[in-house]
Amino acid sequence: MKKILITGGAGFIGSHVVRLFVNKYPNYQIYNLDKLTYAGNLFNLKDIEHKDNYHFIKADIVDGEAMQHLFEEHNFDSVIHLAAESHVDRSISNPMEFVMTNVIGTVNLLNAARQQWKNDFEGKRFYHISTDEVYGSLGETGFFYEDTAYDPHSPYSASKASSDHFVRAYHDTFNVPVVISNCSNNYGPNQFPEKLIPLFINNIRHNKPLPVYGKGENVRDWLYVVDHARAIDVIFHRGGDGETYNIGGHNEWTNIALIKVMCSIMDEKLGRTEGTSEQLITYVKDRAGHDLRYAIDSGKLQKELDWVPSLQFEEGIRLTIDWYLSNQQWLDEVTSGNYLKYYEHQYESR
Ligand code: NAD
Ligand code: TDX
C-alpha cells in the first residue's frame, strides 16, 4: 500500500500518469495535487475520478506552509512531481511565474517531504519530472546523455534546470531519496493547444494560419505521451536512488516536415484536396533564444530498465489527430477565456 502525491495531475502528462497509476495499482492511494491553472483541466480525468484510490487536492505548490500541512495530514510516502509552468513562449513574456512554480514550488515540496520523512527514508521516493531542454541545443549531430552539461537558454528551461539542481542537492546534502528523468517533446491527447501539435491541429481544423517560427528548421524528438507515462511507471518503481534517466522517442522531425505530415493527414481526415491545409503555413518571427535541435539518447533506460516506446510516430500522430477531431468540445472549452487572450497577444505583432 503506497500513498503517492502526484503534482500537476490535471495537466497534459500528469493526467496520463494519474490514469495509469490509478488503474494499474488499485492498492495505491493516488493524490492528485493541482492548482488548476489555465493548463489544468479535471475533465482530463473524468474516466477515473470516481475510483476509490483517487483523490484530488486543489493547492498551489508555491504555498510552502500548505505543502507542509498536506504532508502532515496525509503522510505521503512518495512524490511524482510534474506540476510546472511548461510553455516556453509564456516563459519569455512572464519569467517570474516560472521561477515561482518551477523553482520555489519544487523546493517547497522537497522541504515538506524532508520535514515529514525526517531521516526515515525507508520506502520513500521523490521523483522529479524534467525535460531535455535543460541540456540546451544540439547542432546537426549528437545526442543528449544523462551526463551532458546543463546549458538552458529560455526562462522555462533555466527554471527546470534550477529545480533539477535543487533536487540533486537535497539528495547529496540531506539524503532525500530522489530520482529524475528528462524527457523529450511529448504529444498526444489532452495537450493544451498552445503547444505546436494541438495548436496546429486546431488551426487547420478552423482554417487559421499556421505560425511557423523562423524557417521551420528546428528539430524536436517526439514521444507519445502514454509512452512517457509508462517510462515514469518503470523509473518510479525500479530506477536507482539519485539516478537520472533520459526518455526519448528516437524520433526527430524538423518542425516544417512534421507540419506537412500533419497537414496531409488532416486533408485526408477532413476530406480536403491534398495540399489544401499546407496553404495555411505562415512563416513568422522566430522565437527568441530558439533552440535548434533536441535529441535524446535513452539507451540507459532501455538497457537498465527495459523500456522502449510502444508506438511508432506514424501511428501516434494519427491517433492524436483522431483524438482532437473527435473531442472538439474539449478543445472549444480549453480554447475559450484566458487562452484566447494569450493567443491574441502571442501572435499579434507577427
Ligand atoms: P502542463 O502545462 O500541461 O500541466 C502542468 C500542470 O501543473 C497543470 O495541471 C497546472 O494546473 C499545474 N500547475 C501549474 N502551476 C502549479 C502550481 N503552482 N501548483 C500546483 N499545480 C500547478 O504541463 P505538461 O506538458 O503536462 O508537463 C508536465 C511536466 O513534464 C512539467 O514538469 C514539464 O516541465 C515536464 N515535461 C514536459 C514535456 C512536454 O513535452 N510537455 C516534456 C518533458 C518534460
Ligand atoms: O506556434 C508555434 N510555432 C512554432 O514554430 C509554436 C507554439 C511552436 N513552434 C515551434 C517551436 C519549437 O521548435 O515548434 C517547436 C515545438 O514547440 P512547443 O510545442 O512550444 O515545444 P518546445 O518549445 O519544444 O517545448 C516542449 O518540449 C519540452 C514543451 O512545451 C516543454 O514543456 C517540454 O519541456
Give an overview in words.
The protein has 350 residues and is an alpha/beta fold. It has helices at residues 12-24, 64-74, 88-93, 95-117, 155-174, 196-205, 225-238, 255-270, 299-305, 313-326, 328-334, 338-347; strands at residues 3-7, 29-34, 54-58, 78-81, 125-131, 178-183, 185-187, 210-213, 219-224, 244-247, 252-254, 281-284. The protein has a seven-stranded parallel sheet with strand order 3-2-1-4-5-6-10, with helices on both faces. It has a three-stranded mixed sheet with strand order 7-9-11. A two-stranded parallel ribbon has the order 8-12. Helix 5 links the parallel strand 5 (125-131) and strand 6 (178-183). Helix 1 (12-24) packs across helix 7 (225-238). The relative contact order is 0.13. It binds nicotinamide-adenine-dinucleotide and thymidine-5'-diphospho-beta-D-xylose. Thymidine-5'-diphospho-beta-D-xylose binds at residues 86-88, 131, 133, 185, 195-196, 199, 211-213, 218, 220, 255, 287.
